[in-house]
Write a structure and sequence with these properties.
The chain is an alpha+beta fold. It folds into two domains: about 100 residues, Roll (PH-domain like), CATH 2.30.29; about 50 residues. It has five helices and nine strands. The strands form two sheets. A six-stranded antiparallel sheet has the order 1-6-5-4-3-2. α2 runs antiparallel to α3.
């Protein structure tokens, strides 16, 4: 079941893949007593990679170059001073907006995966955490554009039976195939364990 909670600011834990436990241990049986679900352990955490935004930044740069060229062509050299000032303001202001939004997007959203749940943490000062139990996951898809494939990035889509959050997108992360496989494998493990408990 998915739920949301709000908490105050906290320091970000270390990023990246964390192999705290052998991902296949629970599927092989592990050391858990019969009839008990495996202990929840962290598997992976990450954010949208900055390279994911390169196509948008490139389009902005090309657009600004075109505007600069048109302005310089449209006005005479006698007016070059104020044109230069205008272009400086446009470039600096645009850069602050573009890169500021990218920074907020990267810092303000973090993904965490454990052996039992998927978390999406949103916010910088205040924070909202959405969590989905892997037991409720129906399907996992991996989407990669041409640019994503060049940089080893991708977006993982998770479909679940949760009515409040049936479709989750883990956007622009590194090693997306590994993350997708972790979700699939642990989803199967949770279902097998839950079925075993029900049959006791």
């Amino acid at each position: 079941m998915s739920s949301s909670m709000t908490q105050g600011p906290q320091g970000p834990p270390p990023e990246g893949v964390r192999s705290a436990a052998d991902p296949g241990a629970a599927q092989r049986g592990g050391s858990e007593p019969a009839g008990e679900l495996p202990k929840e352990t962290p598997i992976w955490s990450g954010r949208t990679h900055w390279k994911y935004f390169l196509p948008g930044v490139s389009l902005w740069v090309v657009g600004m170059l075109a505007v600069s060229w048109l302005l310089l062509k449209a006005f005479s050299s006698a007016e070059s001073t104020w044109v230069g000032t205008l272009l400086t303001v446009l470039w600096l202001g645009g850069a602050v907006v573009v890169f500021g939004r990218i920074a907020i997007r990267i810092i303000g959203q973090r993904y965490r995966l454990t052996t039992q749940r998927l978390f999406i943490e949103k916010g910088i000062l205040s924070q909202t955490i959405d969590q989905t139990e892997l037991l409720r996951v129906d399907d996992v898809r991996l989407h990669r554009t041409v640019v994503d494939r060049m940089f080893g990035l991708g977006t993982v889509e998770v479909m679940s039976t949760d009515s409040t959050n049936p479709r989750i997108r883990i956007v622009g992360i590194a090693a997306p195939d590994t993350v997708a496989e972790h979700i699939r494998m642990n989803m199967r493990v949770m279902r097998k364990k839950a079925l075993f408990v029900e049959n006791l």
